[in-house]
């Protein structure tokens, strides 16, 4: 089936019109004398066939002469005055937003329904009467809005062909946003308005209509310009020259159109316009990305984003998971892809600015009758000030969410309480909830008070939140409640300390606690918390199976105390993560002893990024081979002394030099290209293909081994990038450090960026000295804050690098950066 027609199949009136058309055409196509009849393939052709058929039927019914199919042109000629009156009314009333008319309105346009129905019978199908509740006067409307839009487009195209515009509404429409010279041109008769001007003006002025009242009109108008449609309208519309060149130009314009000020729905309609012009290749370029195992190698263009959204929306089967980042939309294509969430069960939208357009698109998915959206994950986003559409969507009775994630920039203070209230209204149905990055501020505790009454809530993620002690107190209340069924809790990157573990342990040892998975990585725990955890594991009531303590300074002494709990018969722990916990061979010995005990049930152990030594690794790997040992998975990757004593990273120090050919024109380099400073005056740098448009600079050296460097910085973001990263573009996202897939960046405000996805840590102070460690073959990139006697770990990336990495810097405000000489 033609995609243009398939798009409309959800509209009952279209199905009725299509049935009428096919009922009339198919028998005639079987007649060998009617080989010239073609099945309609566009929306405009379908409605034109419908008009032709209605004229034929009416003529056969009311004419004394026997009219035949060959009389279509004559039938049109004899009724065209009436059709143009109908068309003019259809257009002008549509432009004014009117779809119901009184008899007086019809008479203003010279339309006598009683006479018309006798003469041609057209209005028996085109019009229907509406009984007004408030008046006895009859009201009329087209049998469907699409029929009115068709006649409106027919009138406008007719005005173009006769080179005369006798409608002030149409003149005003064409003047809006047009060049001044057009005003005098529109008063001329005959009017010599090129077709491409007519269509481009109509496209521009239709797309700015927020509610889309001219969407179908525009599709019909474009469809009128095709020769296949004009052939059907012989006798009604003056045949013009072949416009195939203009059509191709309009197709190109629609494919390349850069729209940021109109709604995503209007962008979708432009894709439908392309289909109406018989552009058949666009959807084929994105069809493959509907499969779970396929994603684009390069960014999708804005129009491809709309086409992909259209494919997802038109699918009879909802998409299992819509992950925005998977599709690699261009920065200007993100908002054009978002409407797809209306036909998805899970939606993951990350690393974007949630502006009004995106919020309205998400809200429409939540409010749809029989909404299929059950999981909504809005993570690492910037939230706009007005989030009312999404809040209203969450409160809507059609909302069926059982999983919700919110993280990113903190919501506006005025909205936190409203958001909290909306989330609480969902609590009875939620199975999974994430509220990270302090996104709700003080309203978080209000929401947590309801966790104990959430009968289905099993997973709760509260990463990167402030006031963690109060959060723990709320969690203890929930965990000790008989109605709480929480099984998984994340408190990563929260400054969670030994004292907070002491608070939480009360809940963990409660007889009503059902928690099985606990993650408290990247915190400030020490060996003191391990004694508390050992008590928890030894408790008869503990159900913990999975525990993540990674990136905490536990040391061997902490591991030794923790292992006393692993040996207990009540311990149910099967997975333990101790990555980057400063464990050495002594810690391995303690773990080996615990694993050798009869009661230890540990199946998976992660000890990566520690200094285990070959001796420690050997002890554990040999024990793993023992048939009596429960351990199945052991990770001892990146076993290096530098992870125990971070200052040893300086053994990999490299000498760097800033590259003047990459420096933005408001950056001054000095001290033999070892220092960069942002200034207000543009520098007279020569043009260079590697020069950044932003306030950024890269180093000359491309690194692909193990390297470490330090910089003294003020208001400076520190990162690395591939040389192939864009230096300019339509949007700063394309060429800013960390905002694309070719760069990684630690922001001085305490945020990490990659591919425009952000993780916020809110360390409070801006580091004055930063250290960066790169192990290119292993795919490791680590950031540290440097103090005179120690290095504090900030963040580690573990990925696969495909090109040499160039250290780079983005200078904010009065920012400056100096490359340090490491002794």
From TrEMBL:
One of its GO terms (cellular component) is cytoplasm. Gene3D superfamilies: 2.60.120.920, Ribonuclease Inhibitor (3.80.10.10). It is found in: Cytoplasm. Keywords: ATP-binding, Cytoplasm, Leucine-rich repeat, Nucleotide-binding, Repeat, Signal. The keyword Cytoplasm applies. One of its GO terms (molecular function) is ATP binding. Its main location: cytoplasm. The keyword Repeat applies. PANTHER family: NACHT, LRR AND CARD DOMAINS-CONTAINING. This is B30.2/SPRY domain-containing protein. It comes from Sphaeramia orbicularis (orbiculate cardinalfish). The gene is LOC115424730.
């Amino acid at each position: 089936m033609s995609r243009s027609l398939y798009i409309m199949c959800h509209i009952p009136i279209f199905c009725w019109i299509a049935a009428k058309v096919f009922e009339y055409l198919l028998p005639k196509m079987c007649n060998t004398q009617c080989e010239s009849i073609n099945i309609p393939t566009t929306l405009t052709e379908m409605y034109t066939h419908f008009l032709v058929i209605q004229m034929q039927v009416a003529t056969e019914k009311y004419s004394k002469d026997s009219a035949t199919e060959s009389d279509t042109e004559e039938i049109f000629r004899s009724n065209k005055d009436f059709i143009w009156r109908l068309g003019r009314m259809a257009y002008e009333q549509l432009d004014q937003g009117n779809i119901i008319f009184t008899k007086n309105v019809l008479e203003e346009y010279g339309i006598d329904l009683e006479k018309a129905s006798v003469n041609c019978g057209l209005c028996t199908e085109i019009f229907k009467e509406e009984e007004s509740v408030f008046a006895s006067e009859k009201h009329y409307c087209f049998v469907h809005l699409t029929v009115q839009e068709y006649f409106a487009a027919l009138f406008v195209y007719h005005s173009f062909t006769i080179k005369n515009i006798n409608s002030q509404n149409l003149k005003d429409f064409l003047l809006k946003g047009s060049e001044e010279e057009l005003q005098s041109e529109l008063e001329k008769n005959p009017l010599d308005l090129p077709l491409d001007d007519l269509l481009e003006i109509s496209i521009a002025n239709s797309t700015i209509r927020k509610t889309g009242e001219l969407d179908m009109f525009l599709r019909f108008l474009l469809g009128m310009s095709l020769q296949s449609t004009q052939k059907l309208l012989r006798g009604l519309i003056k045949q013009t020259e072949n416009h195939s060149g203009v059509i191709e130009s309009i197709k190109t314009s629609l494919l390349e159109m850069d729209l940021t000020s109109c709604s995503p729905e209007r962008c979708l309609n432009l894709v439908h316009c392309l289909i109406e012009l018989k552009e058949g290749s666009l959807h084929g370029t994105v069809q493959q990305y509907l499969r779970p195992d396929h994603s684009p190698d390069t960014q999708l263009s804005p129009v491809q984003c709309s086409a992909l959204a259209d494919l997802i929306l038109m699918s009879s089967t909802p998409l299992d998971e819509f992950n925005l980042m998977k599709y690699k939309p261009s920065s200007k294509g993100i908002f054009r892809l978002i409407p797809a969430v209306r036909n998805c069960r899970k939606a993951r939208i990350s690393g974007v600015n949630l502006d009004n357009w995106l919020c309205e698109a998400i809200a429409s998915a939540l409010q749809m009758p029989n909404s299929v959206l059950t999981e909504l994950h809005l993570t690492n986003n910037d939230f706009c000030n007005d989030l009312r559409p999404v809040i209203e969507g969450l409160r809507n009775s059609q909302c069926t969410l059982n999983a919700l994630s919110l993280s990113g920039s903190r919501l506006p203070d005025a909205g936190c309480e409203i958001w909290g209230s909306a989330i609480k209204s969902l609590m009875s149905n939620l199975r999974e909830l994430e509220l990270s990055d302090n996104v709700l501020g003080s309203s978080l505790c209000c929401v947590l008070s309801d966790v104990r009454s959430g009968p289905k809530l099993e997973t709760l993620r509260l990463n990167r939140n402030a006031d963690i002690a109060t959060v723990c107190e709320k969690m203890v209340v929930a965990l000790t409640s008989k109605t709480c069924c929480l099984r998984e809790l994340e408190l990563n990157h929260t400054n969670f300390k030994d004292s907070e573990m002491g608070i939480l342990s009360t809940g963990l040892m409660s007889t009503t606690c059902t928690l099985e998975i606990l993650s408290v990585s990247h915190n400030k725990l020490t060996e003191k918390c391990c004694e508390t955890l050992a008590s928890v594991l030894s408790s008869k009531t503990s159900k913990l199976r999975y525990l993540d303590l990674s990136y905490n300074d536990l040391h061997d002494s902490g591991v030794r105390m923790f292992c006393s709990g692993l040996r207990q018969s009540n311990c149910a722990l099967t997975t333990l993560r101790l990555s980057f916990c400063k464990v050495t061979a002594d810690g391995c010995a303690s773990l080996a002893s615990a694993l050798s005990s009869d009661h230890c049930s540990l199946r998976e152990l992660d000890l990566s990024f520690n200094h285990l030594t070959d001796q420690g690794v050997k002890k554990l790997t040999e024990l793993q081979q023992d048939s009596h040992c429960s351990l199945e998975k052991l990770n001892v990757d990146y076993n290096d002394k530098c992870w125990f004593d971070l200052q040893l990273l300086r053994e990999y120090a490299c000498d760097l030099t800033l590259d003047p050919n990459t420096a933005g024109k408001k950056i001054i380099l000095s001290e033999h290209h070892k220092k960069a400073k942002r200034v207000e005056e543009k520098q007279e740098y020569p043009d260079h293909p590697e020069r950044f448009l932003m306030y950024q600079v890269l180093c000359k050296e491309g690194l692909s081994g193990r390297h470490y460097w330090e910089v003294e910085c003020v208001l400076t973001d520190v990162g690395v990038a591939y040389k192939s990263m864009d230096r300019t573009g339509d949007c700063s996202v394309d060429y800013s450090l960390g905002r694309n897939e070719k760069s990684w960046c630690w922001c001085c405000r305490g945020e990490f960026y990659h591919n425009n996805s952000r993780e916020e840590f809110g360390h409070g102070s801006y580091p004055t000295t930063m250290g960066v460690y790169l192990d290119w073959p292993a795919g490791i990139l680590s950031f540290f804050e440097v103090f005179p006697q120690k290095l504090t770990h900030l963040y580690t990336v573990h990925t696969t690098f495909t090109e040499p990495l160039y250290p780079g810097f983005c200078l904010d405000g009065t920012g400056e950066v100096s490359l340090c000489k490491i002794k």
